[in-house]
């Protein structure tokens, strides 16, 4: 069975600092991987996705993520965060065994001004 | 011009009552989904659908029914609402089953 683990439920950083949000996955095949963001009182919005090829994928608003098959990870990074990046971030995967996405528990990011 | 719209956005229901959450999409997508969000659990899949007039069970279908009368519409039905079904419910659509597009959520409180 596939699964996604986000080990950090909450992360707090100062504005302008760099950011890494961790995501570990378990899948019998190389999955499709996604990062979604949820702003307060809104639905989830796609930040970026990885299907194959270059393990570093670029997303919106300066976010990027790096796929590592050896570590079963898909960590999200940003060089310099802004207060408006405060939100909940979800990692998700699809292992192509059906049209279903499996989500991690989410990481709540707070950016201090 | 939201492509996935949910109604109602918020509802208070009594235990044992019937609740219907509705979802409408204008993306022309074949796939539609209902997820439940609880603090600490992320999103969990309740029901989904590949095509009109057909629904599939997700990971936590107990206590829920789904209906897909057309490509655009997908409803989630709680026949006998219970306290444990208090949560935020999200509808989503997808053309390929990979990238999902979400509605803004429906907050349900069962009292």
Structure description:
The complex is a heterodimer of chains A (113) and B (111). By secondary structure, chain A is mainly beta. Helix content of chain A is 0%, strand content 51%. Chain A has strands at 3-5, 10-14, 19-21, 24-26, 32-38, 44-50, 56-58, 64-68, 73-78, 87-94, 102-103, 107-112. In chain A, strands 2, 5, 6, 10, 11 and 12 form a six-stranded mixed β-sheet that branches. In chain A, strands 3-9-8-7 form a four-stranded antiparallel β-sheet, with no helix packed on it. Chain A has a two-stranded antiparallel sheet with strand order 1-4. Chain A is globular. By secondary structure, chain B is mostly beta strands. The mean pLDDT of chain B is 93. The chains are: A mainly beta (113), B mainly beta (111). Chain A binds chain B through residues 4, 6, 9, 32, 34, 36, 41-46, 49, 51, 90, 94, 98-106, and chain B through 4, 31, 33, 35, 40-45, 48, 50, 58, 90, 92, 94, 96-105.
Briefly characterize the structure:
The complex is a heterodimer of chains A (113) and B (111). Chain A is mainly beta and 113 residues long. Chain A is built from no helices and 12 strands.
Question: What does the secondary structure layout of this molecule look like, with pairings?
Answer:
The complex is a heterodimer of chains A (113) and B (111).
Chain A: E1 3-5, E2 10-14, E3 19-21, E4 24-26, E5 32-38, E6 44-50, E7 56-58, E8 64-68, E9 73-78, E10 87-94, E11 102-103, E12 107-112
Parallel strand pairs in A: 2-12
Antiparallel strand pairs in A: 1-4, 3-9, 5-6, 5-10, 7-8, 8-9, 10-11, 10-12
Chain B: E1 4-7, E2 10-13, E3 19-25, E4 31-38, E5 42-49, E6 56-57, E7 65-67, E8 73-78, E9 87-94, E10 101-102, E11 106-110
Q: Could you spell the SSE succession of chain A in H and E letters?
A: EEEEEEEEEEEE
Helix content of chain A: under 10%
Strand/helix succession of chain B: EEEEEEEEEEE
Kindly estimate the percentage of residues of chain A that lie in beta strands according to DSSP.
Answer: over 45%
How many beta strands in the DSSP annotation of chain A?
A: 12
Report, as a whole number of angstroms, the end-to-end distance of chain B: 33 Å
Which residues of chain A sit in consecutive blocks of at least 5 with pLDDT less than 50?
none
């Amino acid at each position: 069975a596939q699964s996604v683990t986000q080990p950090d439920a909450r992360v707090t950083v100062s504005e302008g600092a760099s950011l890494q949000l961790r995501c570990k996955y378990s899948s019998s095949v190389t999955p499709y991987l996604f990062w979604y963001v949820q702003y307060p009182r809104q639905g989830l919005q796609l930040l970026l996705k990885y299907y194959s090829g270059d393990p570093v994928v670029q997303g919106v608003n300066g976010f990027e993520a790096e796929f590592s098959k050896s570590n079963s990870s898909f960590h999200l990074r940003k060089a310099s965060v802004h207060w408006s990046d405060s939100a909940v971030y979800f990692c998700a995967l699809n292992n192509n065994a059906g049209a279903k996405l499996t989500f991690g528990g989410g990481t709540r990011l707070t950016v201090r001004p | 011009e939201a492509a996935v719209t949910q109604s109602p956005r918020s509802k208070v229901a009594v235990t044992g009552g019937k609740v219907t959450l509705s979802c409408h999409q204008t993306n022309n997508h074949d796939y539609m989904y209902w997820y439940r969000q609880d603090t600490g659990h992320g999103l969990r899949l309740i029901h989904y659908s590949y095509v009109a007039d057909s629904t599939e069970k997700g990971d936590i279908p107990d206590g829920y029914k789904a209906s897909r009368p057309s490509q655009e519409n997908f409803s989630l039905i709680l026949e006998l609402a219970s306290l444990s079904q208090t949560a935020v419910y999200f509808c989503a659509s997808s053309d390929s089953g990979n990238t999902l597009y979400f509605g803004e959520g429906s907050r349900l409180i069962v009292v």
